[in-house]
Each structure stands twice: as structure tokens, then as C-alpha cells.
Amino acid sequence: MTGEPPWSCTTKTHFLRISCLLSLLDLEYLCEGVEGRSSNPVAVLFDALLLPDGDFGVDCASPLIWRHEPERATPHLVLGKGPPGGAWHAMEGSMLTLSLANWMELPGLKLKDWMRDKRRNLRNDRATPAEIASYYQHYVTKMDLEKSFACGTTVTSVSRVSLESGCSVWKIQGLQRRASSGEGNEVIEVPFSVYAENVVLATGTHDIPARLGVDGENLPFVCHSFWELEAAISSGRLDRASEPVLVVGAGLTAADAVLAAHHLNTPVYHAFRRPVSDPALIFNQLPKLLYPEYHKVHQMMSQQQHKVGETVVNLSNQPLSSLADGTSPYTCYPGYLSFPKHHVAAFRPDGKCVLEDERGLQTVLQVSMALVLIGAHPNLSFLQEHGRPLALDSEEAISCRRNPLDVNPYKYECVKEPGMYAMGPLVGENFVRFLKGGALAIVCDIAEKRSKKRQEKCTTSSLNIQLTNCALEA
Fold first, then answer.
1. pTM of the predicted protein model
2. What would the pLDDT profile of 5-40 be if each residue is shown by its tens digit?
3. Cα–Cα distance between 140 and 467 in angstroms, integer?
4. What is the rounded CA–CA span in Å between residue 25 and residue 364?
């Protein structure tokens, strides 16, 4: 449900030996020889133009100038369950973003300028998710894009259909939440249908938490999201007197859970499959000065490991403050114990968790709560076979890291489904700074298609977006 936005960009200076007069539509040529932290060449190119030397933490001026050209606008519609900003509204507001703040900004509105107007200062050049969510929501208003956003919508089906004219288009069906016209402010769901020439999948991958697939994983004390930990803390179900919390996983969400429980003085067991020194661990890839809180978790993981053959210390009986004489076995981080190279073998109804190391030796832990934070999968239930035919490996579930959607790297169009595009985590991009290159590739390809249709005087090109059943509310 997208088209070419009413924006264009030109370069102020020669950059990467690109002539100012060379069209940005020739993306494949422009991407030759460009290297960066993304596997998608257009994302690397556009990131280099927007954030010169961004990887070095330098806030250099971009050689791009953004100019609003309303006459180039193409009707487009953004369907989403929540307000503009998506998943950022659901994230815990006091954390800090992994990316630097200027990596999070969108063209035409400097994030630092916006925050200065709000009389806020960036902490360590990073912002909170709440600030980012507010910025993105304000961006939509500032750029007069509200009419293109249909919030409170749930897409239930996306399929190809043929019109009477003979052209093939996408039919998108779903439900939109609205306030009832009756008394009581009741919320109702109204069905809708949208017909569009092109569809962009930009759902992210946070909808369905990944599971271990072990016995007892459905027990009430086993949770699969950070927000369940937050709810337990807020309600008072979890405090410093509770049995230890088990955190499973070695990503940033797992680290956030460790920090939250540790700040509450609740004992923490931390289990993960990799060794602490594994270069693939995210902690071994983050600069210490920029991410002190995650460096702290990495230190905890490294310095306070359970050693094979030793009896597991009951953290519930361990002092939560370091002893002056150093007699505590864990003087640096009391109330924490890590289990590297361990996986969960089973959860038991009595609140016990069975861990197993790489040699098959088992350890049984008594816990009050287990948090399985090992990633998530996208919800593409509105596509045939949940979108599997579109993946690199159509036999496996779609995964951001292991099995993303198979797209043309210069167009982001699905190889197996023309007219359907994907961007973001669905194609392996987890950072906002690289999402913008995907959007550029998509609108460039759609613009090129529209230009060819105009040249061919195709009568079907008049169809961009058509609504039936209801008028979607912005």
C-alpha cells in the first residue's frame, strides 16, 4: 500500500564519486563497491549519504538536501494496529536505544532539534524508546502524512485478484477499530477492503516470541516477553524476597531483564547457549563507552559463572550486598549467577527448571519466574502459508537472522511475488538507520514502473488504491 512519496533528494557535493547530475534511480550502478554494516547494498549507500562516517560516532553533515515536491506525490496508505511509531510505543520507556540518536532520525526533521524544542537532552547520545515513539508520531504530523495512516487496523488477508479490466492487483482485507456511534464509547471492529497495485510488508519481527519447545514451557511461571517481567514487578508479585528469576537468552532483551531484576534486588540465574567469549555475542560487538549498562551485564556473565561440578549456590540465601571481608563467593555482583553453554531441558510444575550443559550434565534450579527471551518471529498469518513461499528457504519459518524474505537487493521486491515488497527485519535489517535505504529502493522501483506505464499509456495505471466496504479513518 505504498507509492512514491512527495520527496526528492539531491547532493550538495560530489560524494563517493557520484555526480550531482546522476539520477538516484540508478541504484545498482551507484551501489557498486560500497561496503558497510548491512548486507543490503542500497541500505549501505543511503546510510553513507545520510550519516557520513556514522560508524565512527561522528555527526557529519549529510550531503543531501531534502526538498518537498507535492506534485510528485502518489496515493499510499499505511495500515497499522497502533499509532505511528509502531513497536516503539510498546517498549519500556526508561531504557536507552541501542542506536545513537541521530541514527534514529528521519529525513527532514533533525531528532536533536526536535528534542531541544521539547527541552530534553540526549543521554550519552542515545534516546529512550518513549522519546523515539513520540518523535515518529510527531514526524507524521509535521510532514502532513496523517491522511495516509489508518491506525487501529488489523490486516487479515492479502491476496492477488483479477479485476474486470483484466489487470491483477492486491486485495487487502482486515478490521479497523472504531468508536461506536452509540452510547458508552464502545469500540467496534469494522471490516474493510483495499485494492492496490503494490504492497509493502513492514511488520517487523516482534509479534510472536520464539519458544524453546521443551516440556513445561506452557506452565504459568514461564514467560516469553520482557513486559511480563515489568507487570510482575509493578504488581508486587516479584520483589527482593522472591525466589530467583531465570533469564534464558544472551541478547539485549535478556540483558534488559537481568538489569531490571538486579535493580530490584531479585536474585537472577542467567542461562545461555554460547560461551561468554563468543564473538557472535552482541556484547562483544558494542563499544564499552557507549553502552555501559550492557558492558556491565557482560561482566556479570563473565565473572560470575557456575562452574561444572560445583554445587549451585542458593541465591535466595545469599546476601544482596557485597561483604566487606570478601567472604561472599560473588562479591562483585551479589544475587547473580550465569550458566554459559547451557540450555533448558525442561520446566517442572513445582517451579523447578532443569538446565543441561554441552556434556549432558543437568542442574536443577528453583525459580519464581522464568523468562525465555530468545528472539521473536513475524506474524504473517495474512499471507498464504504464513509467507513461507517468499522466504529464502520456503521449507522453513521466516526468521530475520536465519531465513529472511527473498528480495531483489536493489528493489526490495519479493523475487517470487512481483508487486510485493518487504523492508526492515523481514529482509534482515534491524537498525532504523538502514531501513531508510530499503524505503528508497522500493519507491524508486515503483516510480520506475509508473514511468513505464505512462510511456505505454496503460489504462490500468490509474488504479493506485481503491477502498471498498468502508472509508478507513486516519
1. 0.79
2. 334 344 333 333 333 333 445 777 777 777 777 778
3. 22
4. 59
CA–CA separation, 423 vs 437, rounded Å? 9
Least confident of 319-328, 379-388, 393-402: 319-328
List Cβ neighbours of 407 (8 Å cut-off, separation of 6 or more).
413, 414, 415, 421, 422, 427
8 Å CB contact between 420 and 197:
no
Query: For the chain, which residues make up each domain, given as ranges?
Result: 7-73+200-206+379-459, 211-308+332-374
> pLDDT (tens digit, 9 = 90+) per residue, 148-179?
999 999 999 999 998 887 788 999 999 998 87
Residues 6+ apart with CB under 8 A from 344: 212, 214, 248, 271, 353, 354, 355, 356, 370, 372
CATH number of 211-308+332-374: 3.50.50.60
Give 352's contacts (C-beta < 8 A, 6+ positions apart): 364, 365, 366, 367
- Going from the C-alpha of 432 to that of each of 31, 92, 204, 229, 448, the distances in angstroms are 19, 18, 11, 26, 25
How far apart are the C-alpha atoms of 335 and 322, rounded to whole Å? 10
Residue 230 in contact with residue 373, Cβ under 8 Å? no
pLDDT number for residue 56? 64
How far apart, in whole angstroms, are the C-alpha atoms of residue 51 and residue 154? Answer: 34
Is the Cβ–Cβ distance between 434 and 40 less than 8 Å?
Answer: yes
C-alpha cell at 87: 513497536
Taking phi first (over 0 means left), then psi (-120 to 50 degrees means alpha), and beta for anything else, what does residue 216 get?
left
Q: What is the dihedral of CA 354, 355, 361, 364, to 10 degrees?
A: -40
